[in-house]
Amino acid sequence: MQPSQTRSTILGIGHYVPTKVVTNDDLSKLMNTSDEWIVQRTGIRERRFIEHSGIGASDLAVPACKMALEHAGLQTKDVDAIIFATLSPDHNFPGSGCFLGHKLGLPGVPALDVRNQCTGFLYGLSIADAWVRAGVYRHVLLVGAEVHSTGVEFTDRGRDVAVLFGDGAGAAVIGAATREGQGLRSMRLHADGSGAKDLWLEAPASAYIPRLTPQMLEDGKHYPQMNGKQVFRWATEKMPEVVREALGDAGIGPDAVDLFVPHQANLRINQMVGQKLGIPEAKTVHNIERYGNTTAATIPLGLSEAWKAGRCDRGSNVLMAAFGSGYTWGAAVMTL
Ligand code: ACO
Question: What is the pLDDT of residue 6?
């Protein structure tokens, strides 16, 4: 493919969630929590969990990718590269992109895993965009997929984190824009490791000898730990900030946004962000009540559902924004 001056765009989008619905009441049977506490603080009513052992993030990605390819009018053989964003890879290594490529029947196609948590889809999009614009690859399959349900602790000790997360996948085919004005107009990414331990999974860790001990297991170091209040504070400050940067780069104001697809970590965070930016609820995607936080999957999952429901279409200005563990955060503006 020749280097192209054109922008990259989403040629097709898809999603998949497992069939097992887990309500807040279901969780309250496992730990000291309640539907009222969860809904009031997070907006989450239910989430999806994998049906049985043996289903990894790459398995959830397969149907999402097939849906995205169909939406793009492409076949699996048209994929030139895979980017897989996840914080819950099937296994520590190799990356889930390799598993996915094999499951899709794509021997030899390069596969890159991106480990940027809730901002993973946007980091992946920036790489896909650069590849497409530079003429390196024509069709990049960009995936965000997570299986959280096997990695959180369903006890009183783990309840602050366990109630937040769900399993799911979203995928997009990124390729060259063909119409005037179409494509990715701006992208801003940030990271600040001073907050790394505010939301992290400590072990197993290559920094420790040995990486995992019975004591670490006893202490629950293999489960995510979160300083919720600190994450909340940063998210409500950094998301509006980065959105203003991205809108400024794109040369548009919040009024020109047709659809806002924020990362789904907490309904209250997104409502506060929307209010700060002056973007109405009617233009904002909220699906956290049904899926919880599916981390790297939330943006493609939300955009796919919204597109299918007719809330956006070719020509729409879509704003995407995320904040998460790292800390990492980012925003992008794309005309579909
Ligand atoms: N059910 C019932 N009670 C609970 C639960 C639970 N699931 N979890 C904690 N509590 C208790 C606490 O123990 C505490 O009790 P205490 O007052 O007796 O000490 C009380 O509820 C209040 O806890 P807080 O942590 O102060 O609750 P807060 O109002 O801060 O809400 C929440 C917690 C919802 C986690 C909020 O801080 C939040 O959403 N933070 C942002 C989280 C986030 O965005 N995380 C994901 C980023 S995504 C990524 O990168 C992977």
Answer: 86
- How many angstroms separate the CA atoms of 330 and 240, rounded? 10
d(CA 181, CA 203) in angstroms, rounded, equals 46
The catalytically annotated residue of 118, 270, 287, 317 is 118
pTM of the entire predicted model: 0.96
Question: Beta strands of 157-203 (E only): which ranges?
Answer: 168-176, 183-191, 199-200
Angle between helices 57-72 and 96-104 (to 10 degrees): 50
For ligand 1, the distance from its centroid to the CA atom of residue 247, given in whole angstroms, is 31
Average pLDDT over residues 237-242: 98
Q: How confident is the model at residue 2 (pLDDT cuts 50, 70, 90)?
A: very low
Q: Side by side, which strands form the sheet with 140-146?
A: 8-16, 168-176, 140-146, 81-85, 111-114
What pLDDT sits at residue 5?
A: 65
Whether 270 lines ligand 1, by a CB cut-off of 6 Å, is no
Atom 11, ligand 1: which residue's CA is nearest? Answer: 160
Residue 263 catalytic? yes
Higher pLDDT, 5 or 54: 54
Q: Quickly tell me which residue has 């069939």 as its tokens.
A: 19
Asked if pLDDT for residue 1 goes beyond 50, the answer is: no
153 pocket-lining for ligand 1 (C-beta < 6 Å): no
Comparing CA positions, the residue from 59, 102, 58 lying closest to residue 84 is 58
C-alpha to C-alpha distance for 318 and 12, rounded to whole angstroms: 14
Q: Which helix (H) or strand (E) is 98 found in, with range?
A: helix 96-104
- Out of 139, 293, 312, 317, the active site residue is 293
